[in-house]
Amino acid sequence: MKVSLFATCLVDMFHPNVGKSTVELLEKLGCDVDFPQSQICCGQPAYNSGYVQDAKEAMKNMIRTFEQAQYVVTPSGSCGTMFKEYPHVFKDDPKWEKKATELANKTYELTQFLLEVLKIENVGAKLNGKATYHTSCHMTRLLGVKEAPFKLLQNVEGLEVVPLKNCHNCCGFGGTFAVKMSDISEQMVDEKVQHVEQSGADFLIGADCGCLMNIGGRMERKGKEVKVLHIAEVLNTCEKN
Question: Model pTM greater than 0.90?
Answer without folding.
Answer: yes
